[in-house]
């Protein structure tokens, strides 16, 4: 059951000036496409071929003999999720049940923002910052390389890619500026709220 590379949910120029057309073309059309292609090649004809990509990720997490398959599966999924975590004119603050839950579990929206910025800025090397639901409680976490919180029983609600290819063309070494723009101008809180409602 081949996993298809999803189209971006917006135009290549839609996130400018925060994320440029060049970054999205390289990131989606080259990096993400390669993960999808390598995953499909690796899983074809195996006993995992009829499973969803989420089930493959959970089934092989921690199995060193399947590290290559895991990395491509998780990176294919992580990127598909990441694109939906952003939208043109995004950012600001969430409303409704999501806002109430953030205030309840973090104390305030500002406290969440600080935790999320810290996770993104302190992820050494490549990886991801996440807002997850863990046993009914919202938490901020970070993962290295291709790792995904679902392998720890957590439900991803929001992610930010902090691999250099996500921001280097636009921000060079200024990862904190990319993080600030992601939270302030890009986050698709409607998508995050829908993930929470479905969890």
TrEMBL record:
<keyword id="KW-0560">Oxidoreductase</keyword>
<dbReference type="InterPro" id="IPR019832">
    <property type="entry name" value="Mn/Fe_SOD_C"/>
</dbReference>
<dbReference type="InterPro" id="IPR019831">
    <property type="entry name" value="Mn/Fe_SOD_N"/>
</dbReference>
<dbReference type="InterPro" id="IPR036314">
    <property type="entry name" value="SOD_C_sf"/>
</dbReference>
<comment type="similarity">
    <text>Belongs to the iron/manganese superoxide dismutase family.</text>
</comment>
<keyword id="KW-0479">Metal-binding</keyword>
<protein>
    <recommendedName>
        <fullName>Superoxide dismutase</fullName>
        <ecNumber>1.15.1.1</ecNumber>
    </recommendedName>
</protein>
<comment type="subunit">
    <text>Homodimer.</text>
</comment>
<feature type="domain" description="Manganese/iron superoxide dismutase N-terminal">
    <location>
        <begin position="3"/>
        <end position="87"/>
    </location>
</feature>
<comment type="function">
    <text>Destroys radicals which are normally produced within the cells and which are toxic to biological systems.</text>
</comment>
<dbReference type="Pfam" id="PF00081">
    <property type="entry name" value="Sod_Fe_N"/>
</dbReference>
<dbReference type="InterPro" id="IPR019833">
    <property type="entry name" value="Mn/Fe_SOD_BS"/>
</dbReference>
<dbReference type="Pfam" id="PF02777">
    <property type="entry name" value="Sod_Fe_C"/>
</dbReference>
<dbReference type="InterPro" id="IPR036324">
    <property type="entry name" value="Mn/Fe_SOD_N_sf"/>
</dbReference>
<dbReference type="InterPro" id="IPR001189">
    <property type="entry name" value="Mn/Fe_SOD"/>
</dbReference>
<feature type="domain" description="Manganese/iron superoxide dismutase C-terminal">
    <location>
        <begin position="94"/>
        <end position="194"/>
    </location>
</feature>
